[in-house]
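Sharing a chain and its predicted structure for anyone who wants a worked example. Both blocks are below, sequence first, tokens second.
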Amino acid sequence: MAQTITFNATNKSAWIFEDSDILTSTADGTTCPDLVITDMNSSNSTIHTGVTVPEDWNWGNYLFDGTTWTIDPNWVEFDPDPSLGLYPEP
């Protein structure tokens, strides 16, 4: 089982964490094991625990309403231009 943090306005699943990770949402952001997510806070996001994450989950490609996962119809896979140096050469 896992946890996901979703944006309230869209139900977009933005982050996945282990269920054992401690997540705390305040007005200033959401504190996670290794970072603070400043654009997700107690007024604009929800932490869902005990969820089974789809195997093909990727940032932003799924919506989660607290019960059901659905593919985001507006999601576009990121395909970087290799000339930008975002990934090391093989």
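Comments welcome. The chain has a mean pLDDT of 90.
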